[in-house]
């Protein structure tokens, strides 16, 4: 039993040591000299005022000036004022900027910043000139038969050819005539969720062939604020022919050309992922392209660059691609993967190292939530399912523990006979275990299995959008956030607010769920008498309350799981040990005067 106690303490301490590790210090990003663009040529410099990055080999065209603004960096002058096309769908609201033809203003209609009903909507894209520019654009790179200033650039003013408002039923088309025989069009469509379809076309009315290279690009000006927690990836996420790659923002500046650019043969996608939101460039399934992730002068970029195409004189050509810009809803992303053929798109959600557990755990949780209609009760039912799956191991463990308690008197006699001879004591104990068919290590297996399950559930609750702002009962309005109740104001009875989350007072004045967690863990431990060793006895006496404070700031959904797990484990252990002929003396263990004894072999268990 002493060995089991030590194993329990060690396994639990190690598991929480892993969970509570934070990355406290991140080195500042270093700019990569000589960064290259989609075609392998040096990237143009950009001005210090955060003007848009010009694709390599292109010029910016200032329609107000009526001609090319020259190669290299934009001049830093104000972008010309132009009309905007509205975006209105059941999931998105925003506008398309006719300058550059970029999607740079996007709100998520079904998500707010906080729980308050009048809280601002979550904003995904922002235009240049705002605090955090973040947008998507599509264009062409001139290779042969056309000068760099004869293809649309960052400041190109597109004309509205068709449509006034982008909706799932009404696409819009922009057009730009370069005045030298090339007419460019950009048709943008959107579905009811978060997927844009972009069709770029070019018409060649010259008397010579023109070779161009289409591309899509997502830009983020400056490194965004991130959670910076080791359990979550935020930054670049891309799939390249079945291989998933995640790149942190801090790592982008130091990437070599070989690391930055990947030639994708058949299927892939590339973009930026936040905790709950994502923007991703998605070429047509089955097409080859160059996937690029890089940083240039403080602008973070992901690109999908397609093969060069040649447009014959009098001919035309189009290139189609998709842009996902929205919330990482599991069901929506899975539908895009299954119905639209986007390869492993579900892996854009950060499932982590234990993906073989996190994926089925979340799928079960999602299904239970759909059936029950409440994510908190779904977590409790999921706990029951997990305990049912592990019941055979739990039964074997608790049955072995009950038998070992029956052997306790004989083990004490062995200790007396062996004295200081540890080898003789070990041999005697092994013979005793073998004779009575008891495995002293059997109690460790359920504990070891619980560690990855707990970690996986923690991952699911922390990273999945479906837990965000999910209510349970009464005061629990967000299962992804810590318990908002607090001893500081007697759980709302006193007329002042609880301490701010993350503050020292919030860590001290716990809420209802952490207190229930400590009590449930303490009762579970009281099923067994205190260990005879004074040090072990002290450690086990304090451990429930230490864990209560350690986990007090964790997501309330995770605490609900742990409390339910403790209650079920307590019930299982009590019933199994009674069935094995040993009746735990819970009240005696609490008082420290345990009188539990093995049941009479010829009669029912003692009560």
From TrEMBL:
Membrane-related topology note: Multi-pass membrane protein
Residue ranges annotated for the Membrane insertase YidC N-terminal domain, each copy included: 84-363
Sequence ranges assigned to domain Membrane insertase YidC/Oxa/ALB C-terminal in this UniProt record: 375-578
Example of a GO biological process term: protein insertion into membrane
Residue span of region Disordered: 33-81
Origin: domain of life: Bacteria
Any Pfam family the entry gives: YidC_periplas
Gene Ontology terms for molecular function: membrane insertase activity
UniProt xrefs under InterPro entries: Membr_insert_YidC, Membr_insert_YidC_N, YidC/ALB3/OXA1/COX18, YidC/Oxa/ALB_C, YidC_ALB_C, YidC_periplasmic_sf
Membrane listed as a keyword: yes
Key words of the record: Cell membrane, Chaperone, Membrane, Protein transport, Transmembrane, Transmembrane helix, Transport
GO cellular component: plasma membrane
Subcellular localization: Cell inner membrane; Cell membrane
Signal peptide: none
Low complexity composition bias: residue spans: 63-80
Regions that span the bilayer: 375-395, 504-523, 544-564
PANTHER family hit by this protein: CYTOCHROME C OXIDASE ASSEMBLY PROTEIN COX18, MITOCHONDRIAL, OXA1
Family, per entry: Belongs to the OXA1/ALB3/YidC family. Type 1 subfamily.
Record text on subunit structure and interactions: Interacts with the Sec translocase complex via SecD. Specifically interacts with transmembrane segments of nascent integral membrane proteins during membrane integration.
HAMAP family: YidC_type1
Entry function: Required for the insertion and/or proper folding and/or complex formation of integral membrane proteins into the membrane. Involved in integration of membrane proteins that insert both dependently and independently of the Sec translocase complex, as well as at least some lipoproteins. Aids folding of multispanning membrane proteins.
Name by which UniProt lists this protein: Membrane protein insertase YidC
Organism: Histidinibacterium lentulum
Gene assigned in the entry: yidC
